[in-house]
Amino acid sequence: MILIDGKKEAGSLRLKLKEEVNELKKKFNDVPGLTVILIGELAPSQIYVRNKEKSAKEVGLNSDVIKYPEDVDEKTVLKKIKDLNENKSISGILVQLPLPKHIDKKKIIDTIIPIKDVDGFHPVNVGNLSTGYESSIPCTPLGCYLLLKKVEPNLSGKKALIIGRSNLNGKPMAQLLLKENCTVTITHSKTKNLKSECLEADIIIAAVGIPKLVKGDWVKKDSIVIDVGINKTDKGIVGDVDFEEVSKKAKALTPVPGGVGPMTIACLIKNTIDCFKRIKSS
Ligand code: NAD
Q1: Which of 87, 120, 155, 225 gets the highest tally of CB atoms within 10 A of its CB?
Q2: Does 187 contact ligand 1 (Cβ within 6 A)?
Q3: Which domains does the chain have, with CATH numbers?
Q4: How many Å lie between the centroid of ligand 1 and the Cα of residue 259?
Q5: Which residues of 127-146 are buried (b: 16+ CB within 10 A; e: fewer)?
Q6: Residue 52 is among the residues annotated as catalytic for this protein
């Protein structure tokens, strides 16, 4: 079984991105700038933001974090986003999710101009991805896609099954795999007989949020399984895939932790650089 080492792949991607930033610096006398807005004190969000800032700095980006208390009003955040939209030294804006209940997620996402939307959540970017135009691609599915291409460069004609239909993971993942000429099935909480759907698949992407949902007898021999899930349990962090069981059947599998997670952050850096390049050429 091939253990898909996301930590290693993310490390090599960051190295390549660092070289790219050096080249961009020579060409434009400027480097990409990423601003993250963090609202409240949720521990996982604070950890993600710290890791994002660390990676951005390591690669040579200008990076800063704007922190607001949990009870900040929506207008203040929207005004800040509008200022960042206008700020020429900023190429990427990210508002860390989830947001407090009194802040409208859609308004926040819609206010970030698409060219600086490093998360790829703005409807313009979602539309561009689904119609095949250049766009920012949500970081986690982009990371899954890059890992998948590493093990299987030719995805054409493969049966790909995605578990989960979120805007963050399942839907953009489906678009990326369609573009690669996979035959794509998206399953979700109302899908009947998920096990038999999984048994048909050459590729399974599990993005559900249920610990060890995908069992060894759900997967075809020689399938490739990408586990997006991050679930906190009494026994530590586990994925949506039963690693012990599935590793005995699959051709390739991502571990949790150390699989998709590190790639997500590296792809955020990639997206910030790509936004910078689009801004410079627009
Ligand atoms: P979400 O809650 O937005 O979506 C979950 C999806 O799973 C929904 O579409 C739902 O219909 C489907 N679902 C629920 N129960 C199901 C069932 N029994 N059978 C089939 N489908 C079912 O979650 P999300 O934001 O897409 O995140 C999914 C998982 O990925 C979570 O564990 C999250 O922590 C993790 N995640 C990881 C990364 C990373 O970088 N590795 C990034 C984002 C999210």
Answers
A1: 225
A2: yes
A3: 28-113 (3.40.50.10860), 139-261 (3.40.50.720)
A4: 16
A5: ebbeeeeebbbbbbbbbbbb
A6: yes
Q: How far is the CA of 240 from the centre of ligand 1 (A)?
A: 9
Helix, strand or coil for residue 62? strand
Q: How confident is the model at residue 157 (pLDDT cuts 50, 70, 90)?
A: very high
Catalytic: 46? no
What is the CB-side half-sphere exposure of residue 46 using CA atoms within 13 A?
8
* Residue 227 is among the residues annotated as catalytic for this protein: no
Ligand 1, atom 5: nearest CA belongs to which residue? 208
Query: Virtual CA dihedral for 86, 88, 89, 90, nearest 10 degrees?
Result: 40
Structure confidence at residue 104 as a pLDDT band (50, 70, 90): very high
For position 52, what pLDDT does the model report? 95
Backbone torsion region of residue 222, taken as left when φ is above 0, otherwise alpha when ψ lies between -120 and 50, otherwise beta: left
**Ligand 1 center–CA 238 separation, angstroms:** 13
User: Is the CB–ligand 1 distance for residue 226 below 6 Å?
Assistant: no
Consecutive H or E run containing 178:
helix 170-179
Q: What's the confidence (pLDDT) of residue 46?
A: 96
Report the nearest atom of ligand 1 relative to the CA of 259.
41
What's the pTM value of the predicted model, to 2 decimals? 0.98
182-211 tens-digit pLDDT: 999 999 999 999 999 999 999 999 999 999
The residue contributing the CA closest to ligand 1 atom 19 is 189
CA pair distance 101, 189, nearest whole angstrom? 24
What separation in Å is there between the alpha carbon of 228 and the centre of ligand 1? 8
Atom of ligand 1 nearest to the CA of 265: 40
Q: What percent of the chain has pLDDT over 70?
A: 100
- pLDDT of 238 reads 97
